[in-house]
Amino acid sequence: MRTHGKETLTRLCALLIAASLGGCVSDGMRMVDGHVGNAVSLVSGAQGEPSNVAIFVASTRRSEGATDDGRAHFSLTSIGVPLNHRAGSLERPSFGGADRRRHFTVLSKRNMDEREFYGEVASHVSGRIGNSRDVLLYVHGFNTGVEEARFRLAQIVADGRFSGVPALFTWNSRGGLFNYESDKEAATVSRDALEKFVVELSRTPGVGRIHVLAHSMGAWLTMETLRGVAQSGHPDLDGKLGEVMLAAPDIDLNVFRQQVARVDPRHVSIFVANNDRALS
Fold first, then answer.
1. Residues 185-222, buried b or exposed e (16+ Cβ, 10 A)?
2. Domains in the chain: how many in total?
3. Which position among 59, 120, 141, 205 has the lowest Cβ density within 10 Å, counted as fewest Cβ atoms?
4. Is the pLDDT of residue 39 over 90?
């Protein structure tokens, strides 16, 4: 990866950790019937309308009471970034419904089966060059709902002007500060699904590097997954693994030593903040 590409990814990770602890754009893209054509990440809407960020989502979340079996389902979700968006902020209504001209909103969602999903990723990167073929995979942390995860990734893409393909892996975090143990179990159940997701993304025709941006407990899940990938004989995704950025990682030091022993540490960067109360 070129130096300026790494600097961009470092900036994206800084945006994530700053936002979490505080609580090449084309003019030719347009939304058509909920689909994105000729894609780059951030698409300006019509006058007065929000910009669009198309996110490929793999989710192991289950409805209340359903068995958490760790299987993923897939969608392409378009997130609206309001015109009044300020870098570092996640504009949401204090009460009542969201206004797509003033708040982050879900503009469209299309559920897909697995084969269709990866075919759509391949179509998305077709014709791109350079870093615009790269995937930025976001793995959220503890106590994070699916809506917050989607909006946070869209915010990072918009603020960082990321020109590649944004992807989200969202696991069955139940939310609530007292659900740490159940969240850890849910993250553990999702390891196989994330491993398959990362490997399949790397094998998708046209895709460049796979960069991973993981926060908190999601950093533990990411490193466990990459350790599993390495043990299966693909330590760097056969040359496709890019930057692995761990923001405020919730990982025991001895566990991390075992994980990074399997993953080339040259891929891994750790970002921390001295005001992270959860880690303290």
1. ebbebbbebbbbbbbebbebeebbbbbbbbbbbbbbbb
2. 1
3. 205
4. no
